[in-house]
Amino acid sequence: MELSKLQKNAQVLFKDRCDIKRYRFEKAENGVSNAVLYDVYNDVMCRISYLTSEPNEETLTAFKTELKIKLFLPIEYKIESGDIFIVYRNGESKSFKAASQSRIYSFHQEIEAVIYDKNP
């Protein structure tokens, strides 16, 4: 089986879609640099995975649960730490931020992510 067929078989697991955005600095007329969010890729096949750590840690006021989020993408996209992902699943969208460089494997790449609270 050739590589492209193996990649397509692996991508069957990508049930979600995402838009990928990145900040760049642009100098305004007054000389001040502003961070501007721009589109890098649109409508990318992906899969988001959530994993909670067990056991939960109890503090005086609440239980602390660590949520690990991974985003899986095809290998042809260049992802940088800090990129913003708007993931679409079941008619809803959620925003995440790449918390690491992507780890590239034979048929996919994995990115650790955190919930992004700002509205891009």
Outline the structure in words.
The protein has 120 residues and is mainly beta. The chain has a single domain, classed as Beta Barrel (Thrombin, subunit H), CATH 2.40.10. It has one helix and nine strands, in the order αβββββββββ. The N and C termini lie far apart (41 Å). The relative contact order is 0.22.
Short summary:
The protein is mainly β and 120 residues long. Helix content is 8%, strand content 54%.
CATH topology: Thrombin, subunit H
- What's the number of helices? 1
Q: Name the CATH homologous superfamily.
A: Bacteriophage SPP1 head-tail adaptor protein
The secondary structure category is mainly beta
Spatial strand order of the main sheet: 1-2-5-9-7-6
* Mean pLDDT across every amino acid position: 85
- Elements, N to C (H/E): HEEEEEEEEE
3D shape: globular
User: Sheet bearing the most strands, described?
Assistant: 6 strands, antiparallel, barrel
CATH-scheme architecture: Beta Barrel
Which band does the percent of strand residues land in? over 45%
- The number of distinct structural domains comes to 1
Helix content: under 10%
In whole angstroms, how far apart are the ends? Answer: 41 Å
Q: Which CATH class is shown?
A: Mainly Beta
From the alpha-carbon coordinates, what is the Rg to the nearest angstrom? 17 Å
Low-confidence stretches: none
Number of strands: 9
